[in-house]
Amino acid sequence: MSELLPISFTVHMLAAVVWVGGMFFAYQVLRPIAVQVLEPPLRLRLWVGCFARFFPWVFVAIALLLSSGLWLIVAYGGMGKVGLHIHLMLTTGLVMMALFLHLFFAPYKRLKQAVQIEDWASGGRNLAQIRMIIGINLSLGLITILIAVYGKYSALF
């Protein structure tokens, strides 16, 4: 079992990088450019296209994070044996996953429908909701990364 620990840690870390890095790029790089350069119809179409390519990666990342994270917890003896930082990472991860599932099945679904029927006002409202959820998830993701890096060595945990 211990020979799989490096692989599990690597899978876990790379899945987190894909998800959190993608959110950072969308929120801090693409969004400001899209707002400045594109009119609402083009901007909304751009976002639908970007999300259509990124969200499958998020689903893969979630599956890998859950499976590798739970496997690591089991490998270290279960929830009773791991530190507070692991409990916090699991909690923030589950909240992030729930927020993403809501984003995907509610505002993103409505955004796609609005763009399809060219209801730009509705599309803009849904994109604003998506932006808010991504902002929250990005913050939680960055906090989770800090907990992962410093948790074991911090006096706080």
Describe this structure in words.
- With 157 residues, the chain is mainly α.
- The protein has one domain (2-153).
- 84% of the residues lie in helices and 0% in strands.
- It is built from five helices and no strands.
- It has helices at residues 5-37, 40-75, 84-105, 107-116, 120-150.
- Helix 2 (40-75) packs antiparallel against helix 3 (84-105).
Apparent shape: elongated
Order of helices and strands: HHHHH
Q: Tell me the helix content.
A: over 70%
Distance between the termini: 26 Å
Helix and strand content put the structural class at: mainly alpha
- Low-confidence spans: pLDDT under 50, at least 5 residues? none
Strand content: under 5%
Assembly status: single chain
* Count of helix runs: 5
Largest sheet, strands/sense/barrel: none
Q: What would the average pLDDT be, to the nearest integer?
A: 95
Total domains: 1
Gyration radius (Cα, Å) is: 18 Å
